[in-house]
Amino acid sequence: MTSFTTLVLGLVAAYVAWRQWRTSQDRLVLDLFERRFQVFQELTRATTESLSKPQVSVQDLANFDAATEKARFLFGPEIHSYLGEIRGLLIQVFALGRALPEMPDGPRRTSAEVKVVEALNQLKAFYGKLADLVTPYLRVGPQPPDPWRYFPSRVQEARESLVRRWRRDNSE
């Protein structure tokens, strides 16, 4: 009977340890999701704020750069590369937006205005494209099946095996 009790306690301890490990893994996945989603929101907020004003400011670029640096460690290189392209467009809008008021009318000003409009059109698609790029990183995978579902049958099998062994040992 002592070996049976020891076995049951060992199984219970193993199950508790496994559940603690599983809980910590789930917590890690959730923490990573929260950090990634927070950076995604910071990136979209920084871009939206810069596009909602008549001109992009240095502070807008600084906010975008801060969020981009966080994204470097949480997302893959394709997202960091895309954010580099967006930063280039923001700088283009910033520089041309500052230069346009002082430019005289003519082909150079028209060319600058066209560049600003093209950059703004590309930036307008930022949110949708970024959402598509980060979606695989924000998915939380399927949860493993609940082991308690199998536990009663395993206990029954172990009990029957122990009873057979005990009867065999005591019959000799």
Describe this structure in words.
It is a single chain. The chain contains six helices and no strands. The protein is an all-alpha fold. The chain has a single domain (2-138, 145-163), classed as Four Helix Bundle (Hemerythrin (Met), subunit A) (Up-down Bundle), CATH 1.20.120. Helix 1 packs antiparallel against helix 2. The protein starts with a helix and ends with a helix. The mean pLDDT is 82.
Number of strands: 0
Helix-residue proportion: over 70%
Judged by helices, strands and strand pairing, the structural class is: mainly alpha
Q: Please, how many helices?
A: 6
Question: What is the class in the CATH system?
Answer: Mainly Alpha
Element layout with pairings:
Elements: H1 2-51, H2 58-74, H3 77-99, H4 107-124, H5 126-138, H6 151-171
Summarize the structure.
The chain is an all-alpha fold.
Throw out a few tags for this protein:
83% helix; Four Helix Bundle (Hemerythrin (Met), subunit A); rod-shaped; mainly alpha; 172 residues; single chain; 6 helices
